[in-house]
Structure formats: C-alpha cells, structure tokens
Amino acid sequence: MADPMKIRASVQGDKVVVKVLMAHEMETGQRKDSAGKTIPAWFIQNVTATHNGKTVLSAQWGPAVSKNPFLEFRFSGGKAGEKVVVTWTDNKGDKRTDEATIS
Amino acid sequence: MNQTRRNLLHASAGASVMALAAAAGLVKSGSVYAEDWNKAAFDTKSLQDTVKAFGGAAAAESKDITITSPDIAENGAVVPVSVSSKLGKTESISILVEKNPNALSAAFDIPGGTEPFVSTRVKMGQTSNVYALVKADGKYFFATKEIKVTLGGCGG
Predict the structure, then answer these.
(1) Is B122's CB within 8 Å of A64's CB?
(2) Which of A99, B57, B71, B94 has a C-alpha 20 to 30 A away from that of B51?
(3) Spatial separation of the C-alpha atoms in residues B48 and B38, rounded to whole Å
C-alpha cells in the first residue's frame, strides 16, 4: 500500500485552495536499470478530488508527471470544517484515498 | 467452405459481444485498470495530434491562457508548471511538453465551480516548448512557453 498523501485545503477569499502531495515513484518506462533492462512504467493515471460528493477536479496523468507528484487547484463553494477527498489510481491498479478538512 | 463460414460466424459473434460490452460500458479504451484513461492521447507526439486524440479539430493560440513556470529549470525531473485560463467555459486544461517522448503530460477536467487553474510538476527530458492546451466552450486553445533545462529529467 502506498504512503498517504499530504493534503492541505484552506479558505482564501471566496475560494478553497487545495494542495496535494502524493507519494509515488512515477516510473516512466523509459529508464533502464544497471543490467540494461527497461524498468516498467509505473505511474498514477487518474486523480479525482471531491467535496461534499461533488467532483471538483479530475485528472488523467501520463508518466511525465514528476515523482511524488504535487497538485494545486482552487474551487469555490467550500467552507471551513468540510472535507476534501482525493483519490488516485495507478497503472498497476493500486489505489489510495485520503481526505483533509478545510481550514 | 465450411471453414470460411465458421470463421465468419465466429468473427461476427465476437464483434457483437464486443459491441455489447462497449455499449454497457464494460470495455473502455486504455488500460484495464484505469477508469478513464485516454491512451491514444498519451501516446501522441505533438500538440495537434493530442487535440485530435481528444476529439477536437485544431487548436488556436490564445493570449487568455497563462503558463507560469521558471524560464530555466535546473532539474528537468521536477519542473513546476502552473496554467490558468481566462477563457469562458473552460472545460479542461492539459500540459504538454513538445520534446518529451510523449507530448501529453497531464490532462485536467475542470468542472463548474472550480477555478480554471492548475499547478503541478512535470518531467522534461531537455529544453523544450511547453504547451498549455485548454478546451473552452467546445473549442481548443493553446499557449506556449519555452523552458530551458540544464539537467534532463529522463536520464536517471
């Protein structure tokens, strides 16, 4: 199981600013190991963020997103104390869901 | 004769099963794991090909899209890129790196209520133009910026 995400969500003006840091190798499938074998690709393909059951951001990623990916986005309609839930799925079918309380 | 007939039957039966499965939403393009991953788009090598893979015709350059990133990235493995759009009805934002093995890095769907802004970090193999591709009101627009890389991100 992958390590938890770090999620910060805070109200700034009339928007909620969400910053997410995920722990993932994001292997491209282009690199070779010391024996000259290609390291198979392993990367996050889908990311979904929801607030009160409503999707506030969904993303499809390729292997060119950096290792331990960072993501920032902003949405309106959120209040302090409510929760933001972020889920990712990688190309091996591994999944991770974490949530944060808006401050 | 019989053999041909059997082949034909087999082929048509297979095709209809696939069609049914696709209609029922059981079979989706791309990886078996991803709920919705556009493999065709992530295999493209250029901006216009990516637009086509998304189902658009062509993208026009727009001054209403802003790419925020360093002009020179010391480490190509971690290049911070932010994109914001002032286009009305922005539906999606994608980030493309022209000289990477596959151009498309990330695609974001922006639902109503979410600001047309995303910030993330991408890998760049070498100095390249970076494109922000925005779908707004059914049409595609892009902005470009060159980012110089002093240390590549794909060498390991």
Answers:
(1) yes
(2) B71
(3) 16
**B113 and A56 in contact by Cβ < 8 A?**
yes
Q: Closest by alpha carbon to A82, among A18, A13, A27, A3? A: A18
B49 CA: distance to closest CA in chain A (Å): 16
For chain B, how are helix, strand and coil distributed in percent, rounded to 5? 20, 40, 40
Pair B45, B100: CB distance under 8 Å: no
Q: Is A7 in contact with A17 (CB distance < 8 Å)?
A: no
- Spatial contact of B86 and B63, defined as CB atoms under 8 Å apart: no
pTM: 0.83
Query: Is A57 in the B-facing interface, judged by CB distances under 8 Å?
Result: yes
Kindly identify which residue of chain B lies nearest to residue A44, measuring between CA atoms.
B34
Is A37 part of the contact surface with chain B (CB cutoff 8 Å)?
no
* Token pair for A20: 């997410």
Provide the phi-psi class of A35: left if phi over 0, else alpha when psi is between -120 and 50, else beta.
alpha
Token digits for A88? 């990712």
* pLDDT, tens digit (0-9, with 9 covering 90-100), for B48-75: 999 999 999 999 999 999 999 999 998 9
CA atoms within 13 A on the CB side of B142: 21
Backbone angles phi, psi at B2, to 5 degrees: -60, -40
- Give per-residue pLDDT as tens, B129-154: 999 999 999 999 999 999 999 876 55
Q: Is B35 on the interface with A (CB under 8 A)?
A: yes
CB contact under 8 A, A64 and B105: yes
Structure tokens at B131: 């494109």
B75 has a chain A CB within 8 A of its CB: no
